[in-house]
Amino acid sequence: MLLFLLLLVAPISLSAANYLRSDRGSGWQTADRSSAGLLPPPEQNVDAVVRVFAARTVRWRGIFAVHTWIVVKDKGARRYTRYDYTAWGEPIRIDGFAPDGRWFGALPETVLAVDGDEAERVIPRIRSVIEGYRFRAYGDYNAWPGPNSNTFVQAALNAVPELNAVLPPTAIGKDFPYDGWWGRTASGTGLFVSLGGYLGFTVGWIEGLELNVFGGVLGLDVRRPALKFPGIGRLGLPLT
């Protein structure tokens, strides 16, 4: 039990120390939201594009969690379309920010990158989930345990299991039940059970082994060797 508590508390404490050393806690309203340069200009890339980005969320919540969003571009389109799920206004926000923009000062990382014919095939399915997303009314957003931005992105990824996409362990809310409290994992290679997003367990070849304790994830990825910790995230090979 002491070892288990240490594995939960120590990573969060380290993440909190990193947060306190940064300047992200002040002036977040005016923080940089410009492009991070992760996407080429759309007119220079004729191919279809799907991206999922993640960046540390705003203020002290960034100690624990990231915010994720989806970017798509149809073949030949001259612009990207960005989908976020936010706590203010109508939850599903379209093109509210630069496609690969910093999230209130936090530099994003790429969670999923798909281009060309494969992206073209899955974009309609992703858009179908977004258009029919059930938590789209004012007041539906709930930072913890969900539904939040990570619940939204996970629901879209569930519709495209062949992409084998996995959100980072710091994507609190990804385990909030959208299609049921138990069943097969998004990739179809394993099983999960979730008690309302507060507690849960996932095991799968793509997802690895994950224990969800009040949103924090302890886990192990064998396929792409890495350890998963709350607050810190993955230690090992990256997701992409």
Order of helix and strand elements from N to C terminus: HEEEEEHHEEEEEEE
Low-confidence stretches: none
How far apart are the termini?
Answer: 34 Å
Order of strands side by side in the largest beta sheet?
Answer: 6-7-8-9-10-11-12
Question: Describe it for me?
Answer:
This protein is of the alpha+beta class. The strands form 2 sheets. It has a 7-stranded antiparallel β-sheet. A 5-stranded antiparallel β-sheet has the order 4-3-2-1-5. Helix 2 crosses helix 3. The longest helix has 20 residues.
SSE arrangement:
Layout: H1 2-21, E1 49-56, E2 66-73, E3 81-85, E4 92-94, E5 109-115, H2 116-131, H3 149-158, E6 182-184, E7 190-195, E8 199-204, E9 208-213, E10 216-221, E11 226-229, E12 233-236
Antiparallel strand pairs: 1-2, 1-5, 2-3, 3-4, 6-7, 7-8, 8-9, 9-10, 10-11, 11-12
Compact description:
The chain is of the alpha+beta class. The protein contains 3 helices and 12 strands, in the order H-E-E-E-E-E-H-H-E-E-E-E-E-E-E. Strand 3 (81-85) and strand 4 form a beta hairpin.
Features:
single chain; 240 residues; alpha+beta; seven-stranded antiparallel β-sheet; five-stranded antiparallel β-sheet; 12 strands; 19% helix
